[in-house]
């Protein structure tokens, strides 16, 4: 006859199962963030300190608001990201200038410029009512575009 204290319902078996579960969950908690870094989505960011805004008067109260900036991708190799377009939503009457066209491959960084004709010119560039800078891009060997939005 077998010993009744040996088996799956014994205290030793219960402690072993709990210990095993703790070790497995601890391993997953440590390994999961590391695995996620390997599959992390590419980042497309505005180079800190690169944004400059200017106002150039036109006829009447209108003016041209120009935003210059640089884009980089800190977690992808150089040349891995293609910028397809960029845009800023205006919160005031105006429209994009005909010269707006941002595209190119991001090597160390990609310099870009957007211009908008504003119907009512504010006193300073900081007073322009606008939304976030929207960058449309794709990564190497990927057909579908992605979008990132940046405040400035």
What does this structure look like?
The mean pLDDT is 84. This protein has one helix at 11-38; strands at 45-46, 52-57, 63-72, 81-90, 94-96, 104-106, 110-118, 130-139, 146-150. The radius of gyration is 27 Å and the shape is elongated. It is 18% helix and 38% strand. The strands form 2 sheets. Strands 1, 2, 3, 5 and 7 form a 5-stranded antiparallel beta sheet that branches. Strands 6-4-8-9 form a 4-stranded antiparallel beta sheet, with no helix packed on it. It has 152 residues and is α+β, with helices and mostly antiparallel strands.
Number of helices: 1
- Total number of strands: 9
Distance between the termini: 78 Å
- The residue-averaged pLDDT reads 84
Principal-axis shape equals: elongated
Q: Are there runs of 5+ residues with pLDDT below 50, and where?
A: none
Strand content: 35-45%
Largest sheet geometry: 5 strands, antiparallel
Element order, helices and strands?
A: HEEEEEEEEE
| Overall SS class | alpha+beta
Radius of gyration: 27 Å
> Helicity range of the residues?
10-25%
How do the helices and strands line up, and which of them pair or pack?
Elements: H1 11-38, E1 45-46, E2 52-57, E3 63-72, E4 81-90, E5 94-96, E6 104-106, E7 110-118, E8 130-139, E9 146-150
Antiparallel strand pairs: 1-3, 2-3, 3-7, 4-6, 4-8, 5-7, 8-9
């Amino acid at each position: 006859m077998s010993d009744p204290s040996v088996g799956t319902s014994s205290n030793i078996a219960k402690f072993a199962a709990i210990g095993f579960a703790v070790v497995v969950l601890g391993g997953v908690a440590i390994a999961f963030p590391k695995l996620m870094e390997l599959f992390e989505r590419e980042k497309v960011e505005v180079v800190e300190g690169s944004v400059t805004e200017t106002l150039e008067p036109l006829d009447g109260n209108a003016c041209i608001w120009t935003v210059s900036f640089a884009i980089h991708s800190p977690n992808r190799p150089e040349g891995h990201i293609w910028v397809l377009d960029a845009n800023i939503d205006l919160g005031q009457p105006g429209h994009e200038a005909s010269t707006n066209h941002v595209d190119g491959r991001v090597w160390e960084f990609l310099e870009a410029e957007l211009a908008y004709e504003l119907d009512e010119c504010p006193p300073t560039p900081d007073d322009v009512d606008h939304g976030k800078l929207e960058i449309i891009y794709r990564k190497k060997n990927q057909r579908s575009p992605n979008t990132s939005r940046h405040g400035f």
